[in-house]
Design brief:
single chain, about 325 residues, mainly alpha, ABC transporter involved in vitamin B12 uptake, BtuC, two-stranded antiparallel sheet, about 70% helix, globular
Length: about 325
Amino acid sequence: MKALKKLFHRWEFFLVVFLVLEFVVFGSANPKFLRVNSIMTSIVNYISVCIISLFVTLVMITGGIDIQAASIIGLTSIIEGVLWSDAGLNIWVAVVIAIVAAAVCGALSGFFVAYCGVQPMVVTLGGSFLYSGLALLISGMSATPAYQGISGFPAKVGKTFVNFRFLGKGELLGIPMQIWIYLVLILLCAWILHRTKYGERLYLIGVNQQAAEYSGINTRLVIMSTYVLSAISAALAGTLLTSNMNSAKYNHGSGYTLAIITAVVLGGTLNTGGKGSILGTVLASLIICILRYGLPLCFGVSTQNLDLPVGIILVLVVLGREIAGQHMISSLFKKRG
């Protein structure tokens, strides 16, 4: 009975209920919504947000924030395209170079946050503009006009996607390869956060960084590493997006920032740090994904207006936490009085 009561008080339980209600409402409005292939396609189309939000969760647990990840998607994509199309490098070599470049971007921002004490919001906002501008600059080095995007990536044999395109368009056991990659990353992040000393340190830093330092933790290095991991996840998302769309463009992922932050916050991660879970982030990502898939299909909402419900969810969650926090504080003073 106690275990059941504890389950009802978990934020993840509320998210599961919300997700089920989405399926009930949208499925009742339009039976086409429940088609498995369509649902998997919607997840694939939104997989970049799902992947990045996993690792931004690590950043926010330490008390930071990362709003530059979306710009690194475009930077990664255009680096891969230019190196493959114009420099003549093997596509996998180009992918590795792009991921390393993204890691350097994450390390640079993480350094300013961890070692220089600059506010994460300021650093990553500046990084967002910097890396977007860098992506546009690199796209100018290509013979292909920036607005067209670099296409023609290898390869497809008959009706089967192979090589680089297999990452974005291939299937394994009838399930898109991108979903398999996402599942692996979920398990990896859950293990890192909930089963390793590194994960424990993230929580300790988020609760009290000074106390974590007194306990012998190199808090600066740990904080910096979360931004590196977040940037690498953005590079992976950019690679998958490029493979799926068969197009490398400097502005891929430009509108993902709001959705990423909303997924992490809705998942239960405190913006002040010290609390969060991978399961919560995964559920929240799926809620937003299904919302963006169901509203146009079932209620005719324009795709241009889909950021509106996502923004409303973010505001309501943050406001609800603030009200709940103030209520707890006032109740504590009443008890003491």
